[in-house]
């Protein structure tokens, strides 16, 4: 009976180790999010969304502008139509903005509760805690259309070589965080938004 020598098997060891490390599929995007949808979301089917300025409770160092842009772009991927941020900000700065005043259907409110970047320079890892609320702009005092919260460590070290600068890597990190959180937001029903009930 033929038995291959250790020398013959040596080239296969890296492949065996690689396969051993690939146990199970990667986690599904959005699985780490604690989400609470509402039946009202499917009933109202909001299209136009205001991404409100981020409420930052985590102190300095949070890239709020990058995060907000990332959430805006991710909403488009979820088939929503966010209003242009400069347009929204002009209304906010003039104190003219109230939910629904821009004829939007919903407002996405984002709160950064935690942002620990102590491991960023060494390992490109972040510990983030972000809360999201989708509010009906025509009934802002009512129940939320959807809420989601992510509270976890996210690692981007494996992506480091793909980005020539820290800024580009951080921008991608913000995009990934927004994608993770909003993956739990139901994809928008393409039917037109329904008028509010009297």
Describe the structure.
This protein is of the alpha/beta class and 198 residues long. The protein has one domain (29-182): Rossmann fold, CATH 3.40.50.10610. The protein is built from seven helices and seven strands. It has helices spanning 6-9, 13-21, 39-44, 64-77, 85-93, 120-123, 166-182, and strands at 34-37, 48-51, 55-56, 81-82, 106-116, 125-136, 146-155. Strands 1, 2, 3, 4, 5, 6 and 7 form a seven-stranded mixed sheet that branches. Helix 4 (64-77) packs across helix 7. The termini are far apart.
Overall residue-averaged pLDDT value: 83
- Per CATH, the superfamily is ABC-type transport auxiliary lipoprotein component
Q: Any idea what the radius of gyration is?
A: 22 Å
Cα distance, first to last residue?
84 Å
For the record, the count of structural domains works out to 1
* Level-1 CATH class name: Alpha Beta
Q: What's the helix count? A: 7
User: How is the main sheet built?
Assistant: 7 strands, mixed
- Based on secondary structure, the structural category is alpha/beta
Low-confidence stretches: 12-26
Order of helices and strands: HHEHEEHEHEHEEH
CATH topology: Rossmann fold
Helix content: 25-40%
Number of strands: 7
Global outline: globular
What's the architecture in CATH terms? 3-Layer(aba) Sandwich
Relative strand content: 15-25%
């Amino acid at each position: 009976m033929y038995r291959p020598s250790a020398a013959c098997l040596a080239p296969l060891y890296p492949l065996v180790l690689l396969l051993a490390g690939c146990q199970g599929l990667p986690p599904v995007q959005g699985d780490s999010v604690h989400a609470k949808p509402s039946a009202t979301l499917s009933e109202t089917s909001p299209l136009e969304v205001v991404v409100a300025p981020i409420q930052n409770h985590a102190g300095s160092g949070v890239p709020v502008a990058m995060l907000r842009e990332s959430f805006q772009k991710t909403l488009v991927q979820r088939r929503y139509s966010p209003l242009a941020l400069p347009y929204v900000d002009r209304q906010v700065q003039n104190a003219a903005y109230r939910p629904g005043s821009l004829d939007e259907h919903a407002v996405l409110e984002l709160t950064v509760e935690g942002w620990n970047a102590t491991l960023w320079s060494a390992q490109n890892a972040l510990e983030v805690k972000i809360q999201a609320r989708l509010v009906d702009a025509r009934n802002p005092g009512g129940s939320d259309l959807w809420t989601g919260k992510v509270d976890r460590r996210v690692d981007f070290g494996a992506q480091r070589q793909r980005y020539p600068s820290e800024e580009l890597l951080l921008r991608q990190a913000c995009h990934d965080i927004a994608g993770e959180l909003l993956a739990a937001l139901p994809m928008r029903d393409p039917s037109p938004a329904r008028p509010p009930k009297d």
